[in-house]
Every structure is written in C-alpha cells, then in structure tokens.
Amino acid sequence: MNQESIWTSTGVKILHHPSVLRKIIDHRIALPISLQISPTSKCNLRCSFCSNINREKDEQLPFETIKRLMLNLCLLSLKTVEWTGGGDPTLYPFINEVINLADRLHLKQGLITNGIKLKENITHESLNALHWIRISLNCLDYVEDIELPKIKGVLGFSYVMNEETSPAIIKKLVQYAKDYNPSYVRIVPNCLSSNEEQIRNNKILSEMIKDWGSPFFYQAKVFEQPKNCWWGYLKPFVNHDGSVFRCSSIVLNPDADRTFHEKYKWCNVEELHSMYTKEMVPFDPRDCPRCVFSNQNNLIESLMTPNGQEAFI
To answer: Is the separation of the CB atoms in 63 and 98 below 8 Å?
Structure first.
C-alpha cells in the first residue's frame, strides 16, 4: 500500500467500515466515522497560502459544546476525532481537556498543528492520548526552529510548497526528517494555484519528491466535481464559529473568499447529531470545482443508486 493511501483521507478507507456501508444500503441513513473539529480561529502564523486567512481571528468553540457533540456522536458509533485548523488547535485554551475527554470516550485522535506551541501547551498525558500528530513544517518558513516533544503515537510531517519555499527550507525539511524520524513527510502543492498551475505542479513536484526518498512522498491534488456530495455524513467538519460543513476543502472554492463561507454551511453544531436520524440528502456540488473527495463521493453515490448489475464485478 502506498504512503498516500495510509496517511491521507483521499483513499478508500471507507471500505473498512462495512456496518456503515450496510446502513447506507439498507436504510439510506449514515453514521459518522470521523469528526474534524477546528476548536479555535487563533493562530500564531499567517501563512501566505492559508485557505482560511479571511476568518475572524478570535473565535472558539465552548468546551461544553464540544463535549455535547462528542457524547452525542459517540452514541452513533463515532470512531475518531481530528483536532485541526481553523487556527492552530494548540492555542485552544481547553485543548487538553477535550483531548482527555475524547480519550475517556475511547475515540482515536489525531492532531494537526504547526508545532510551535505543541511542547508548551499540550501535556504529556494528552500527547500520549493521541493516535497521531501531523506537524506542518511550513512553520519553518516563518520561525528559525521548533523543538518537538517525544510522542507515543505516529509522528508525521507535512509541507506545502509555496512562494516562501527555498533551498534552505528544503534542507531543513531533510534535517528534521533525520532528527525526528517521522513515519512520513507529506509534500503537497499550494491548493490556491490555478488549475493549470496545479497540473504543472503535480507533474514537476511529484518527480522531484520521488528523488528525495523515504519517508518523503508527494500527494497530488486533483480537483474533480462529483455528481453529488455525501462526504459530510461520514466526516463532518465543525468550524470554530459553531458552523458545520460537509468537508474542510470548501475554503478552496473560488467564491469562498478563503474562509468557511456561509454559503456552504450544512447546519449548526448543535443540530449535527440529528442529521443521522434522517434519510441522507446529497449536497449539490455545482459550486465546488475544487473538490478533492470526488472518489469517495462516487463510491457512496454507487451505494445510493444501485443499478442491478453490482454482482458482476
């Protein structure tokens, strides 16, 4: 299995959840598998490629809101939670409390952070409760160095190639991989590039990263609109303002104004659990030309619209 299939969300991991698929087939009702939460809009960096740069900078979810949400979704067999941005989750004042709560609920957890405040703000107990941590080494575009704590779970690095990237930065990436021995270093293109630039970047960068060897791998970003969008039922994204979106990639759409635009809002966080008591209704992705979950949506579309020929594999 290639690195992308293991460490990213754009593969076919949904096939490992037959009970969820069975419920979709039999009842057209979903169950949440993984929950993404952006607990705060605060960040200690201002990356040039940030797709959520026009957000309000002082929003955060109340601890009690996150608590109710996780309790409600755990009753629906939620399996994992990812603490992500937004801003940087290590700046959320209750980050240790929500991590420890999720651990008591037996949820596997991941954390995506720029790493600058990881050692200072996340307790040893919380670090050990995390199944994985992904550090955005784009922090090195703006700070000289970061010191990372030892973790019990999987350590991974990610880096977005952008206008700040230089030979010196690339040299640092290689050195950090040697110093910290991560399970992977994912290199991705700047998703704010035009479609033409993206095609060119995917071609050039994939060849370049191949020469870097393990643990580096390149994740191409391929945009394609599915017929319908179902993905939010399985992996909803909860924003720091209390809004729920069907995925974290809507910020890439041309009219999203580099923020989680109200236009793409699914529901409020307090309403999310009720979405799993109703028949699934797809979202029309006509305004989502930069969808990266087309393959997953097409798999679900096939379950929702059988044609009688499925046995002829």
So the answer is: yes
